[in-house]
Each structure stands twice: as C-alpha cells, then as structure tokens.
Amino acid sequence: MRRTTLLIGLGVGLALLCLAAAGTGQVRVPPAEVLGSLLHRAGVDIGPMPSAAQGENALWVVRFPRVVLAVIVGASLGCAGALMQGLFGNPLAEPGVIGVSSGAAVGAAAAIATGVSTLGGWTVVAAAFAGGLAATFLVYTMSRSGGRTEVVTLVLTGIAVNAVAGALIGLLMFFGDADAVRAIAFWQLGSLAQATWASVGTTLPCAVAGIAAALFAARRLDLLALGDRPARHLGVHVERLRVTMIAVTALLGASAVAFTGVISFVGLVVPHLVRMVAGPGHRVLLPASALGGAIVVVAGDLAARTLVDYQELPLGVLTAVVGGPCFFWLLRRTRTRAGGWG
C-alpha cells in the first residue's frame, strides 16, 4: 500500500511540477491556462487559453518540448542508476561507471573540435550517442574473460576508460580553437536549452524501450540480489541478464546525455533516496527512480532558467552542487548505521 502511494504521489508531484515549469519564464502563463491549452489541443474545449501575448507559442514551441525532454532525460537517468546498482550490487554504480557519459562527451567533443557537420545540426548529438555506446562496448569487451564478466573487473575497467576519455577531451580542447573549447565546455556543463520536438521524438522511444526492458527484468534483478550462485539455481541466466541490462543502461544513458550534455548525480543519488522509502524490490524501485529522476531534472531545469534574470545556469552544475552534498550525507548515514566500512 505504501509503495503504491509512493508511485501515485511521485506521479502527481511530477504532473504538478510540469504544469508549474511550463508556465514559468519570461512569458508567464498560469497553470489553469497551461492546462487549458493542453486540453484544447487535445480537442476538449475546457479551460482558459493563454491570455499573454505569444503565450500559446511560448508553450508549444519552447516550454513543452523542454519540459517533456527533461522528464525523459530524468526518467532515463534515474532508471539507469537503479538498474546499475541492482545489477552490480554496488551502491556507487551509475551509468557513468560503464563509460556512457564520458564516451558521449568524447564523441561530442570530437565532432565540435573537428568541425564535422555530416548530419547538420544532429552531428554532435549523433557523435555523442555513438561515443556513449562505443565506450560501453569497450568497457564490456575488455572486462570479459573466459566467457564471463566479473563485476569488479568491469567497474575498474570503467574507471580506466573514464580516465582515458577525460584525457582525450583535454587533448581535443588543447588543440581546438577558442570557439571549440567554449562549445565543448558548454556541452559538458549540461543544458536543456536546445530542446525541440525533434529531440523529444528521438529520445522518447529509447527511454520507453529501455524502461520497459528494465521493468521486464525486475524479478530477475531481485533474485540476482541474492548472489550469482543462488540466482543461477533459481533459473536466472546471470551472464545473459548482465549483458542485456548493460545494453539497456547504455541506451538510456547515451540517448539522455546526447541532447543535454553531462547531468551528474541524478542516476547516483535518486535511487538511494527512493530505496530508503520503497525498499530494495525492483518492481517498485525502478519506476519510482524514473519518476524521481524526472522530478529532479524538471525542478533543476526550472531553477537553472529562473534563478538569475535573463541568464541560464548550467543544469549539470546545479545537479552536482545539490547532489554532491546529498550523496555525502547518504554515505555518512549509511556508514553510521553499518558501524563503519572496515
């Protein structure tokens, strides 16, 4: 009952936050008019239309695609974080561990520094997506031995690949011109300023497919929490589950950061907070983490574009500023309850 209440509460909270975020900005639109605009577009003539000049255009051209993309990105990162932590039984796991974020950053930086524009405005996005998938494949391939993937080896390989990716980004910035350096730095800070309906149309299928695949594997993830050997005895093909879920994590993480840049700590902190309320069962943890991640990113983007007049703060910096101390508090709390790590 408490878990159902949690999911309903998170869903209602996200809907209310989206209404507030869509109506907030230089052109203010009250929530009733935001809802009225949505209903009229759906063919239901109920509620007031936006009364502000250009209010309808501001909603449908700028605000709605931005809010919807924030929901998709947050849900993808939250679900991917919960998936990684359950898959590896490691509370420090997140999509960045397997190189998704750093690989995407290398791909985007390479496209920016070289000036390649084969796909026009989609070149950087495509390069980021390809970089994220390539880094994940590299980490997975290098960590396999004897037909098996050891968790410790995979995590350590991810750390090494992340370090190499950081060095490559540094080299690209060193050899790039001033405009390229500025563009690479801006991309790494994270932002939803480039959100469009086209970007929503690209990321939405990836998010839906990834979250659905994660939910389908929820029961096997619960069994995997008992350990590899007990899970095998209960009928779980551990290696196949790990390979599939790593691919799902790469799909969720790469599609999310490709359009927004690096948004840190969402996939790491949100599943921890949700687990404190919902418990470790993945059938609730995964959807609750997706809803929680969406709430965090929508709220963070709203703060990023409203805290300073006529300027927009980097979203990735805001999530790191809030998420870093929050994660430190979680570490201290867990350490205190466990009586120490040693």
Automatic annotation (TrEMBL):
Membrane topology type: Multi-pass membrane protein
Protein's cellular compartments: Cell membrane
InterPro entries for this protein: ABC_BtuC-like, ABC_transptr_permease_BtuC
Keywords assigned by UniProt, alphabetized: Cell membrane, Membrane, Transmembrane, Transmembrane helix, Transport
Gene3D superfamilies (alphabetical): ABC transporter involved in vitamin B12 uptake, BtuC
Predominant subcellular localization, coarse grouping: membrane
GO cellular component, one term: plasma membrane
Membrane-spanning parts: 67-88, 95-113, 119-140, 152-175, 195-218, 243-270, 313-331
Alphabetical list of CDD domains matching this protein: TM_ABC_iron-siderophores_like (cd06550)
GO biological process: siderophore-iron import into cell
GO molecular function annotations of the record: transmembrane transporter activity
PANTHER family xref list: ABC TRANSPORTER PERMEASE PROTEIN MJ0876-RELATED, FERRIC ENTEROBACTIN TRANSPORT SYSTEM PERMEASE PROTEIN
UniProt name for this protein: ABC transporter permease
Natural source organism: Phytohabitans rumicis
